[in-house]
Amino acid sequence: MKTYSMIIGGKAVDAGKTFAVVNPASGEPFAHVQDAGPEQVDAAVAAARAAFPAWSALPDAERKARLHALGGALEANMSELMELVTRESGKPLQGLNNVGAGMELGGAIAWTHVTADIDLEPEVIQDNEQARVEVHRKPLGVVASITPWNWPLMIAIWHVIPALRAGNTVVLKPSEYTPVATSRFVELANDILPPGVLNVVTGGGAAGAALTGHPDVDKIVFTGSTRTGKRIMENAAATLKRLTLELGGNDAGIVLPDVDVKTVAPKLFGVAFHNNGQTCACLKRLYVHESQYDDMCAELARLAREVKVGDGLEPGTELGPVQNRAQLDIVRELAEDAREHGGKVLAGGKVREGKGYFFEPAIVAGLTNGARLVDEEQFGPILPVIKYTDVDEAVRLANDNPNGLGGSVWSSDPARAVDIGKRLECGSVWINEHGAVQPDAPFGGVKQSGIGVEFGKHGLAEFTTIQTVKIMKS
C-alpha cells in the first residue's frame, strides 16, 4: 500500500504520522498519506511566501507557458490520475452520461489551458490633458486552497490555476477523504514550477484550521459546506483575509407543463444523479406541474431502477458509492425522515448490503417544502419531486431556501423559461440544462451559497487586488 508524501518547497516531506485513505467501493484502505501538524503548515506557508516575489515577477508569457505545461502533465498522466480519483472518490471511470473520473480529468485539463490564456489588462479610467488614471491588477500573495471530496482533482485545479495565473503562490489542503490524486498532481507540478510555488499539506480539520488562520496567508479559496465555510470566515477575520467561498447548494429545477416527459426525464435524471448526486450544483429539488407530476415521477423511478450501480473501476458502472460513511448516514437519515413524513419512495431508498457505501438511487414523491429532504441539501442519490399548481407557486417554493447556488427551468419555450429563470434567487440559472459550468463563464452563489465567483475573468480577478495609478500631466 503506497504512502504519499506532502510537497513543501519543492521537496517531499513526511509528518511522522499517517492516516489511511479508504476506497468507498470496498470500505477498505488503499493508500496512506501524511497527517500534517502545525509545523508542516508553517513550513508550507513559509515556502510559498519565499517563492512569491520571483513567481509574481515572472514575465507573463513564461507564467502562461508553465501553466500550459501543467495541463500537459495532467494529460500525459491522465490514466493514472483517473484511477486514483475513482479509488478515492468512488466515481466511475466513465459514469452516467460520461460524467465520471474521465470527465474530471478532461475538465481539469480544459480549465488549466483556458485559464492560462486569460488576461487582466490594465483599465484606463481617464486619459486627458490633466492626467492618466489606470487600474492595475496585482497578485495578493499566498493563497490557501481547501478542497472537497466530491470532485477532488478538478476543484483543486479550479482553485490553483487562477491563483498561479494571477501571480500568487499556493498552499493546497485537500479533503482528508480524497487527498491522493491531488497529492500526485502536486508532485507532477513541482517538476514544472519553481520550488514553493505550489505546496500541498494533507490532514484533517486541525491542519485546515492552522492554514486558514495563518497570519501569512493572504487569501482563502474554499469549496464545501456552508457550515465549514462560516468557520473559515471566522478564522479569516483576524487578519481580514480575502475570501472566495463556494458553499452548499440545494438547487431547484422547475419543469413547465409544455415539456415532453419521456424526452426530458432522462436529462433530469442525469443532472440530478451524476456523481451520485454529490455535486454542489446538482439538481436537488424538482418542481413538476400537477398535470405531468405522476408521469414524470413514474419515468424517473424507472430510470432509477435501471441505472447500474457498482464499483467505479468495473466496466459499465454508471453510479458508484456514496463517498464516505458519514455522508451515507446523512442520505439514509433523510430517506427515513421522508418516509416518516408521508414521502412515497418510488424506487430505491435503501443502503445496499455488503461492502462499500452503496445507496440505491431513490425518487421520492409526496413531499413539499418543510420536509427535511426538500429543505436540506442531501448530497447523495435521492431526489424529491414536488408538485406545483402554477408557475408563481413554483418560483416561490424554489426561492424558499437559504441556499442560492444554481437553478434551472425546463420548457419547450426558451424565452418564457428565461423570464422565469431570472426570478430565481441563484448565482447561475440554466435553461433545459443544469449544472453545466465552463471555464470562461463566472460561477458562484448568492445567499448562504457563498461569496465571490470562480472562472473566467471575473474569477481570475478574485485572486488580485486593485492598484489605481494616477499620473499627473500638468
From TrEMBL:
Pfam families: Aldedh. The active site is at 246. GO terms for molecular function: oxidoreductase activity, acting on the aldehyde or oxo group of donors, NAD or NADP as acceptor. The keyword Cell division does not apply. PANTHER family: ALDEHYDE DEHYDROGENASE-RELATED. InterPro entries: Ald_DH/histidinol_DH (IPR016161), Ald_DH_C (IPR016163), Ald_DH_CS_CYS (IPR016160), Ald_DH_CS_GLU (IPR029510), Ald_DH_N (IPR016162), Aldehyde_DH_dom (IPR015590), LUC3-like (IPR044086). Residues 16-469 form the Aldehyde dehydrogenase domain. Keywords: Oxidoreductase. PROSITE patterns: ALDEHYDE_DEHYDR_CYS, ALDEHYDE_DEHYDR_GLU. This is Aldehyde dehydrogenase family protein. The keyword Oxidoreductase applies. Belongs to the aldehyde dehydrogenase family. It comes from Massilia cellulosiltytica.
